Amino acid sequence: MFRYLSLPILLPGLLLGGAAKADYSKHPEVTGFIQRMSQEHGFKRTDLRKWFRNTEYQQSIIDAITRPAEAKPWHEYRPIFLTESRIRQGVEFWRENADILKRAEQEYGIPSSIIVAIIGVETRYGRHAGRYRVMDSLATLGFDYPPRAKFFRRQLEEFLIMSREEGVDPLSMKGSYAGAMGKPQFIASSFRSYAIDFDGDGRRDLWENNADVIGSVANYFKRHHWRRGEGIANRAEVRGSRFQSAVKKGYKPSFSVEQLQQLGVKPIGSVPADASVALLALETPGGHEYWVAQHNFYVITRYNHSPLYAMAVYQLSEAIRTTRAAELKQNKPRKG
Questions:
Q1: 56, 84, 122, 158: which is the annotated catalytic residue?
Q2: How confident is the model over 295-318, as a mean pLDDT?
Q3: What is the pLDDT of residue 22?
Q4: pTM score of the predicted model
Q5: Nearest one of 170, 74, 86, 76 to 122, comparing CA atoms
């Protein structure tokens, strides 16, 4: 769900080596963290010390966060996610969860294709939900990665509260190098805010329960103001050089369609005249391809703050939707 920029830094903690960081209860900054968690949230210090004694520094986590896929150009990023196998698996996931997806779309207004594509991009429909213990990830990044230490310590705080709320041992949960969890890869603060019990069994299970996974993704987008029935993005043709000023404004919609047209941009296909839009330039081997992005495209970037990510989700969703429609048409009983 996240984008992290590569920063060339030397981490003081790395000089000690992984073995020296096997016990985080001895980390000088963890003592203060334990004290605050005890005072502010009522955790037992003995429990916190036990968890941190069994939490380990992971150098591979530091390596991963300094080389995110989103740093790649579009023509290298796209093939990671737009594959025949991922499309096929998306159609299978949709087929197996059609009733749940239909209910989520009816209740929240989020297209089934978008929900399926999110899960596909994040974890290949649960096949790759993460191999790191979340405690290891969040402690490593919270205490030994200065550029994002504040953010990840906050997530560690949220994670421990979440573990208590859900009645789960914090050392038992696994996720991504950044501490994102389950099939939809929610970080702890997102789990607490947006995860829902969509099948009414009394638990919010984003690892094994597809109803909760689908409902939680739909709830996330609804809460981030997805607009039911509106478009997402359209290819565009450009002329001259004035359109570059729109590209520089970024991917948050801030232009009218008419304003883009005055800058030499022509959307391909129908875009409502009153829509607020942005202009994207995606790098290809031969130059750039241009896209007019609407509000719902921006909503996708609330899941991961990268226009490359949002475009991959959109294009995968379209490929899955088209393939699913063809499958249904082929299997539709003939009359007469």
A1: 122
A2: 97
A3: 66
A4: 0.90
A5: 86
